[in-house]
């Protein structure tokens, strides 16, 4: 039974955090698993790790609507997605081509370059979490109009909520801009972010969230961009320490909220997964871990990858660009995360 629950959650989580689930899974079996475990849909909040296109509607440079971004994900919809009713990945709520039926299976409200700190989103003119939650309210209205109030409540009751953000709060805000670093020490800023996260979770719970996965942040100091900016050839330990400290505080806060809100929660440890892949690349099929596949691989990411050449085989690269993991790394993350999730999340 545990393996069945993990398989069902693997498909759902993978659709949220990566563009393609390259697995041959029996469609009929997946339909049964989803129904058996009452996983009705998935609703996603966060940054570029889970934004399938909401930012394409914004006047911002933080987009991915050009060649190379998603280059290896142009195949037909994965079979797991078809089994659960998805045409492809979980769609962006602001996608102009979204269909009413898509609302039944979930959407992403995420906005690339966003974070727990509203200032982080404001720096790049993207949606803060407060705006993402506002769009969630619109989603609830559309869902009720589509299936009626009772059915809509049933769908939300069985939904899996995912929060994936935090990296930008450090890399594009605290470590780069003077405002927060002058207001707070690093530890104080971590605590501030945790208070923001807790407030967002409490609001999600008030709006109907009952099962939540919070994704931690990766080892920031191992990103090619960070190493380049710091003129280091190895991982920048101070950045990794900040990430590890922040992740510990996420777990501590989730334990408190699990009790106070009676909310089923799980923490997704991507820090450990990326760290293991960095230390044992051959075990995971990687030959390049020090740079990304796009351009030079050391400074380019997102919009700055536009028009640049890419590596011949992205599957051998741990990073896609100087910040984001490759598709292959996302698959590994999804597998690792699901294998470690608390089974109580699905009970």
The portion of residues assigned to helices is 40-55%
For the biggest β-sheet, the strand order reads 1-2-3-4
Strand content: 5-15%
Question: Unreliable runs, pLDDT <50, ≥5 residues?
Answer: 1-33, 66-70, 73-87
Quaternary structure annotation: single chain
Instruction: Provide a count of the helices.
Output: 13
Radius of gyration: 19 Å
Straight-line distance between termini = 11 Å
What class do helices, strands and sheet pairing give? alpha/beta
Give a count of the beta strands, DSSP E runs of length 2 or more: 6
The helix/strand series, from N terminus to C terminus, equals: HHEHHHHEHHHEHHEHEEH
| Biggest beta-sheet profile | 4 strands, parallel
Give a structural overview.
The protein has 347 residues and is α/β, with parallel strands linked by helices. It has 13 helices and six strands. It has helices at residues 2-17, 27-36, 79-83, 118-124, 129-147, 149-157, 167-174, 178-183, 186-206, 224-229, 237-260, 270-279, 327-340, and strands spanning 42-46, 160-164, 211-215, 264-268, 288-292, 317-319. The strands form two sheets. It has a four-stranded parallel beta sheet with strand order 1-2-3-4, sandwiched between helices. It has a two-stranded parallel sheet with strand order 5-6. It is globular. 49% of the residues are buried.
């Amino acid at each position: 039974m545990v393996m069945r629950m993990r398989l069902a959650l693997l498909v759902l989580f993978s659709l949220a955090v990566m563009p393609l689930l390259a697995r041959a899974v029996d469609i009929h079996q997946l339909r049964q698993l989803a129904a058996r475990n009452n996983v009705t849909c998935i609703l996603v909040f966060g940054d570029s790790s889970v934004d399938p296109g909401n930012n394409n509607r914004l006047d911002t440079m933080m987009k991915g609507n050009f060649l190379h971004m998603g280059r290896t994900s142009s195949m037909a919809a994965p079979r797991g997605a078809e089994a659960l009713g998805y045409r492809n990945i979980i769609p962006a709520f602001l996608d102009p081509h979204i269909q009413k039926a898509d609302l039944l299976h979930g959407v992403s409200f995420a906005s690339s370059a966003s974070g727990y700190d509203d200032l982080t989103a404001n720096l790049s003119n993207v949606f803060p979490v407060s705006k993402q939650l506002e769009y969630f309210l619109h989603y609830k209205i559309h869902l009720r109009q589509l299936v009626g109030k009772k059915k809509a409540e049933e769908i939300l009751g069985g939904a899996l909520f995912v929060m994936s953000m935090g990296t930008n709060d450090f890399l594009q805000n605290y470590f780069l801009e003077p405002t927060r670093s002058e207001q707070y020490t690093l530890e104080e800023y971590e605590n501030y972010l945790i208070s923001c996260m807790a407030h967002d979770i409490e609001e999600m719970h008030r709006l109907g969230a009952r099962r939540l996965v919070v994704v931690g942040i990766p080892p920031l100091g191992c990103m090619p961009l960070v190493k380049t900016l710091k003129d280091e050839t190895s991982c920048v330990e101070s950045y990794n320490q900040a990430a590890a400290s922040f992740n510990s505080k996420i777990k501590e806060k989730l334990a408190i909220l699990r009790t106070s809100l009676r909310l089923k929660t799980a923490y997704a440890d991507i820090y450990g997964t990326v760290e293991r892949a960095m230390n044992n690349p051959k075990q995971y099929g990687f030959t390049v871990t020090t740079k990304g596949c796009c351009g030079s691989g050391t400074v380019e990411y997102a919009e700055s990858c536009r028009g640049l050449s890419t590596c011949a085989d992205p599957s051998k690269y741990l990073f896609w660009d100087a910040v984001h993991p490759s598709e292959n790394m996302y698959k590994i993350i999804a597998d690792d995360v699901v294998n470690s999730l608390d089974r109580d999340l699905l009970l």
